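Everyone, describe these structure tokens:
***
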Amino acid sequence: MTPEQIIAALKQLMAEGDAPGKVLTDPSDLATYGTDWTRIYTPNPVAIVLPKTTEHVQSLVQFANQNNVALVPSGGRTGLSAGAVAANGEVVVAFDNMNQILDFNASDRTVRCQAGVITEQLQNFAEKNGLYYPVDFASAGSSQLGGNLSTNAGGIKVIRYGMSRDWVAGLKVVTGKGDVLDLNKDLEKNNTGYDLRHLFIGAEGTLGFITEATMKLSRQPDNLTVFVLGLNDLGSTMDVLNTFRSKLDLTAYEFFSHQAMNHVLAHGQVKAPFDTEAPYYALLEFEAVSEQVMEQAMELFERCMENGWVLDGVISQSETQAQSLWLLRERISESIAPRIPYKNDISVVVSRVPGFLEEINQVVSDHYPDFEIIWFGHIGDGNLHLNILKPEDMAKEDFFEKCQKVNKWVFEIVERYQGSVSAEHGVGMTKKAYLQYTRSEAEIAYLRGIKQVFDPNGIINPGKIFD
């Protein structure tokens, strides 16, 4: 089919039903919906389709199979692995108009949502109903639930609440063959063979489209309190973590380098937490449910100071101050974005983080001493974000080429530490050449086999994870 024929057929499909969908072909829409935050690949979709119903999505997939048309899912377009980029004439299926909260069950503490529901929308709904949706990250105001589940997003609360998959009671999906599956039916216990919902969670939209998800909710946390600590060195991160976890159930444990904080401070919206400068900082959060817990937290802080692990620190005295301290961590990505950072999202088991980080930092610094390196991440669950900032006088293409050389050295260290080349951002196109550093040949063969079962014609998000 010609592009014109494809567009005409899509418009006809989207006109069906009581709630018509949309088809966009304006060049600005193609550029907006065809990309994500990576900005490495030039978007080049044929059209953007915004369905309103699962039936629309099913019709799209059936049409795509009949006419060999590639489909790329698009959520909030906040991805960092080019997993939702349409660079090769595909049709983008965007879920912005499937954004309704469909049902709420207070007894089961579950809420059924369409895939386009914004993370913050779900968080606010839970709060209004006296409950809590704990999966949280800096892009919560724009990321969509379907995209979060397709990458098994983690974020800042994993140390206490786990990943996105831990909160999924059920899924409705349209497979690459065009079948609609209602997975797990929201059951807490269902031991009847393979749990297919967990294949779709983290699959980056390569097996089919998530159209609805039933999410579990939790009780609201009580008096969340934040410590920001200046650390003496990297090794101290684990000493501090072990000390606080011995007595407190932490809801978050984040870290960032002094260079990372400097970029946030340069924007002028946040102040330094204290006068003392430290090479690294830790942000930890816990529920201060009583005076006894607060006293215990202060005793642990003093113990860390006495041992020389912590140089200085501050504890929030109000919810407003806690939110202000969180900005030191949450504003990092935004503050370095103008420098077109090359991002690596890597992980190891928590106990091996300091040595792992030191080795990678040394390799990158030795080979590219003129590159500014920004470290931050969810160190409490072993997830580190390595950001290399583009020098202002270097062309983007030359910068990315040099960074890809760095990848080999970084991922060789990842492999030696038995870590992951992508902890939470997914593989997409940016990491698929390095999949073998985390997955064995046998595992990759099984992954390809699963893809073949659900998407035999290869029309769903082709070229992502592997070719």
Notes: The longest strand covers residues 208-216.
